[in-house]
Protein: Cobalt ABC transporter permease
Amino acid sequence: MLQSIINGIVPIAVTVIVGVLVAVIKAIGDAIVVLVEKRKEEVIQKIRINRYNGCLQVAREVWRVVDEYFRINSNIKSTISNKQKKFEEEILKILPDLTATQIEQLRQSVAGEINKDKDKIVQNDSEKI
Structure:
């Protein structure tokens, strides 16, 4: 009699234990998938930031080269236009996969960085006159 009760309870107990284990494993698996997705997004974001910073550093170097190339010129309007064209040519030699929009953004970023104190210099020079 005890043996028949055990034989009836064991399959039910095994089924319950297997069901609980499946539920626990699924919950752990889902949590791992979410964690991996978050980590993947962080890595992708870090790669994008590093790529942008690398492009920005190259853009700064190209800007210095172009600035030196056009350092002495009496016609400022043609110089600005020519500098922009020269910047685009030079940066495309180093980073050929950039789009025109990306080049424009990098140029504006570097120009803003380089030129941020130039108004002060011009004001100071005009104040001296």
Remarks:
- The two ends are 115 Å apart (CA to CA).
- The mean pLDDT is 83.
